[in-house]
Structures are given as structure tokens and as C-alpha cells.
Amino acid sequence: MLKHDLPYRENPMLRWSYSLIAPIYDLFIARPMRAVRIRSLRSLPMDVPKEVLLSGIGTGLDLPLLPKLHHYTALDFNAAMLSRARQHDSGLQVEWVLGDSMALPFPDAQFDHIVLHLILAVVPQPARCLGEAARVLKSGGTVIIFDKFLRPQQIALLRRALNPLSRRIATRMDVVFEDVLREVPSLQLISDEPLLAGGWFRGIVLRKPA
User: Fold this and answer.
1) Is 44 helix (H, G, I), strand (E, B) or coil?
2) What's the start-to-end Cα distance of the chain, in Å?
3) Would you say 78 and 9 are in contact if contact means Cβ atoms under 8 Å apart?
4) What is the CATH number of domain 3-207?
């Protein structure tokens, strides 16, 4: 496989840093994010079993909060994070995949719903990540997003100043969601609401028209 087929390799330090922080990630993220994760995941259907992709599953903090009726595919590019996630499956039907959210190893139109929690602002190419989600999503399906985004024309001097370092070791702070969505015209915005930190973190639902 060629290097350009694995776009996460654009930032090898990111893979190393997430391996390093995997054992302690939950200590800092689990409690403050739990309520907003629950709120975001309410967008999944609760009546009919579906195929759901959890792209960028991380340490699996979403898993105990998910409805049990669906079949899930949990993907992450980091083996250490994926190993931690396996400890949170809570009896769900889960298939585990080591792979890249920017180059998904799945055929077109495989999933009914896709969850992108705290991944679009982590990957080097967020539009490519969202585009891959759109590719593997069935017509009529939804993409459920929870992440931190700047608003168009938002100055955010401190976040932008920290971004050159933070993007290499943890997460980007300069992603403007509207710019990302503009590059993936096959998805339509259904809802967009502030969830945390004065609206920096947002809950967004997109749909792929039938």
C-alpha cells in the first residue's frame, strides 16, 4: 500500500502521541464530555436495527452510551486507543477495525449512520474524513458529529496561536466546519447546536439525500 493511501502518515507524531496518552485519556475526557456525548447520540434511531460506523472511536467512551439494537463497526487508526475501546463495548455487537478515517477500508454505501465524535478536528484533512464518511454512507443515512469548530471569520487568536503545536500532538483548533462541509456537497445540514464551551463544541447532524 502506498503512503498516499494512508493519509494519517502525514502526521506521524500524532499517532505516537495518542499511543502515549491512551492510558490516561479517559481520566481527562470521560466525565466532562459524558452528558454532551449522550445528547449527540440521541440522533441515532431507537426502533430499527441499523449498521453504524463509529469512525475514530478512540478509547471507546461512546460505547456504553449507545443503543444496543444496532450493529457497530468501531474504527481507529491507533492500536493503543482501539485496545482501550474494547474494554467499553458493554455487550454491543461490535466489529473492530484498525484503519484510517481519511481512507476508510469499506465499500460505498455500507452504513446507515456514521458517528464522528472528536475526529474531524483531529485528522490532518477534515474534509477528506467527512468525504469518506459520505462515501460509505447509504442514501438517506446520517452523519452525527460532535466536535470543536471555529465559526466563519472567528478570530480566536489564542486557539490559532496554539494550533501549530496542538495539531501535531493532539487536535486542531482552527477547523471551520462550514469550510469542511462546503467540500462535501453530497451531505446536507439537518441540525447544528452548541453543546459545550460557549458553542466551541457543537452537535451537528448531516444527511445524505436519497
Assistant:
1) coil
2) 33
3) no
4) 3.40.50.150
| Residues β-bridged to residue 53 | 73, 114
The strand pair at 201-207 and 93-98 is best described as unpaired
* pTM, rounded to two decimals: 0.85
> Mind listing the pLDDT tens digit for each residue in 64-109?
999 999 999 999 988 888 999 998 877 899 999 999 999 999 999 9
Q: What phi and psi values does residue 52 have, to the nearest 5 degrees? A: -125, 130
Distance between CA 150 and CA 177 in Å, rounded? Answer: 7
Number of residues assigned to the chain: 210
Contact 73, 107 (CB under 8 A): no
Closest CA to 133 of 75, 62, 199: 75
**In the chain, where are the structural domains located?**
3-207
Q: Which three cell numbers stand for residue 149?
A: 469548530
Which grid coordinates belong to 160?
490559532
